[in-house]
Amino acid sequence: MRKDLLGIGDLSAEEIYLVLDTAEAMREIGQRPIKKVPTLRGRTVVNLFYEPSTRTRTSFEIAEKRLSADTLNIAVAASSVLKGETLADTARNIEAMAPDVIVLRHEASGAGHLLSRICRSRIINAGDGMHEHPTQALLDAFTIREHKKRIEGLKVVIVGDLLHSRVLRSNVLLLTKLGADVWICGPATLIPPGMAPLGVRVSTSVDEAVAGADVIMLLRIQHERMHGAFFPSVREYFNTFGMTAARVARARPDVIIMHPGPMNRGVEIASEVADGPYSVILEQVANGVSVRMSVLYLLAGGQDGD
Amino acid sequence: MPVVMDADRINRTLTRIAHEILERKGGVEDLALIGIRTRGVPIARRLAQTIQSIQHAEVPTGALDITLYRDDLMRHAVGPQPVIHRTEIPFSIDDKRILLVDDVLYTGRTVRAALDALIDFGRPKSIQLVVLVDRGHRELPIKADYVGRNVPTSSAQSVQVHLAEIDGRDEVEIQEP
Amino acid sequence: MKRLLKGGTLVDPANGRTGPFDILIDGDRIGRVGRSLAAGADTAVVELPGGLLVCPGLIDMHVHLREPGQEHKETVATGTAAAVAGGFTAVACMPNTDPVIDNASIVGYVLRKAADANLARVYPIGAVSRGQKGEQLADIAEMRQAGCVALTDDGRPVATSMLMRRALEYAGMFGMPIIEHCEDPSLKGDGVAHEGPTASSLGLRGIPGEAESIMALRDISLAGLTGGAVHIAHMSARQTLDAVRWGKARGARVTCEVTPHHFVLTDAQLAEPVPYDTNVKMNPPLRQVEDRDAMLGGLADGSIDAIATDHAPHHADEKLVEFDRAPFGIIGLETAVSLCFDRLVHPGVISTSRLVELLSVNPARLLGVPGGALVEGAPADISILAPDLPVTVSAARMRSRSRNTPFDGWTLRGGVAATIVGGRTVYLNPACGDLGI
Predict the structure, then answer these.
(1) Domain A134-284 coded CATH 3.90.1310.10
(2) Statement: the pTM of the whole predicted model exceeds 0.80
(3) Chain A: nearest CA to C123, how far in angstroms?
(4) Are A305 and B69 within 8 A, CB to CB?
(5) A133: helix, strand or coil
(6) Is position C310 annotated as part of the catalytic site?
(7) Regarding the domain with residue range A8-132+286-300, which homologous superfamily does it belong to in the CATH classification?
(8) What parts of chain B have a pLDDT lower than 50?
(9) What is the pLDDT of residues C390-406, one digit of tens each?
(10) CATH, domain range C56-367
(11) Do the chains contact at B80 and A302, CB–CB below 8 Å?
């Protein structure tokens, strides 16, 4: 693979399948009594997180440890950034310690691109602003493929705060690349302009969108990013767009329900759906480790290349 | 390219090894065959079948991918990583007498990686090594317990094992550089 | 000491003179303009190589010189050095300095710095409101007396409709236009890029073209109400151009300018060749192809009055940050002429005489300053342009103190041969050889 994983936009369908196939092999390691292989022994991976994220950081850390990498977690509070050093200076400091891989989570879109221009280390984007969260989309695809045995031709409906979601952008790019029929649905105030050219169907009717769906993917309503008033109330959002059992019933009988987490029960998803038989939300979490091991392994090749 | 083993010879060799195993092991109890991917796997399966046809007892088989244990993995300056395949060992190896199976024994590095990998799955009673071809040039203190055929080679040559399950034919040949 | 320039092509649309005219520079003044002038004994004859254009001095009516307060980005001296290297004999500088140019003493300070530098002429533009805070009017009459030529709260729009009304009325007494940075603050929000497919796919918050046109419509309406003159700065959106045409058609005193980057680039530049390049972050943002093409149309049909650079220097460290955090703006003085030739004149969008109208005649008229024509007896501010000169843009070799240009490495056809201010040659392009002026 290439030097960095900054976004799904940079990957070909073949590369995506290579990540998924390698993740299949990685999953078996997690089922062993000793869940560790020596592959990245002596390699250093820095998890540089500018945003709080228990789930993604933990998942990366487990993946790194299962591959025997030395891991270092650096959590930078947003407040200290404002007074403190720039991302460029932080990057140069970390680079001086010669890490092999930097896993970056940052609230600014394109932060990984900046880091990539400054650092020789490989950069894995663990979420940049509203841009991309490629490993999430890869683990989602892994989970879908496991259940449906394919991705091409599936109707995948993504519902929620589309505007602020990096998960949306990565998933749209990945799923359309692999030939899925992708629908995105949410209140008109939360739909990014100009999505149709990406090959998706845009709808503001959740009932229309979920009809006959193979996969329903819910996105978090990100209270923390709501700079303005995008809808009148959480109650109204739930009534209009919340995923209830009645709405799920419009999808195919073997539909699966996905959520990148953390969930807001009673906002974008009803508890009965989150905990229902079609929910694969916890499998997504488990698969996250396998997919991240796969990405770390595939990127670690050609370490000294340039 | 000289063919050093044809289909018939491969077949007779594996039958001979199966008999040797039974003879030396004194039975199939606790026995398990684990093939190293790629071509060790069909050899292990064939040995299990032969043992079963002789002894009417089933010997469990598994497949081991040693890629993640290779000592040359991160040494390439550039280029894609080797593709990883699944390791499938659908039984506990604890207290088993393991026969590790590969097609060619050369430097010994693959076997070293396989031993490390295997130990991560549990604590077998013993591990012995079965190879179809031993071509010499060891770089590590490793020796096979069951050898189909010793084939003297120069290190510039390469030994290609073809198996019907993968390559459509059974044949071992030596390739000149 | 007199110099007679021969062999160039005069482009002087204000006097309807374009063609093989000679021009005599007598000290700091233009002596004569005419065909086949004879040289007196006291006159040095300069034979210009064929193909050079002799134009009235170019005037960039929208430049940030950053002094006082942000001298690490630019100073009056470095900014005017960049100006003359870019073919400009005069610049109008924006008041969003620190402190803001909102009183006569700061106007005087800038003019003294310009006199010290002694390169391009500098026309300070004063703030509309004290501290650009959008509350009280600044000391407009005193600034006028000190040498201010226009007013603006650039960097932001004039805050309220009422303040804009008062400013138009009050400035109208002195014949000063209000130069408006059109932007509806609530619609712009914390946007950093043009709202559209590119920003959406990059996850950048968008600024729709309407954020600009809504404010332009307000200001054009108020120009109609007050009879004052509004000049729309750095127009970027096709909707704004429509608004300007509407205002002009109904007789409002509205004019507008466009920057080279808005008629050359589009928001596609955000993704390629360097994703999230902070040197393509400017306000207003680069817009879509339709907007860029509308700007070309407006330049061709005369709806657009001027080309100005919005030269906005920022230190490299300030730009080496996340896209969201980077300051808006790029430098433009040293690339404008080349971009104009390469993208406007050579493709046939406009003629050279229209180019001189946009860069010289109209800016002089809009600001009410001397220049814009080659008139006997007037100060000899002359730009000599080389329309076919091959130019490779090199940020590292620019005179500006800052390097924030998206055009670094571009190869363009057309450039500047020499810049003459008050009869003095203040810039000679070594690529054009020794012209002997």
Answers:
(1) no
(2) yes
(3) 37
(4) no
(5) coil
(6) yes
(7) Aspartate/ornithine carbamoyltransferase (3.40.50.1370)
(8) 76-78
(9) 999 999 999 999 999 99
(10) 3.20.20.140
(11) yes
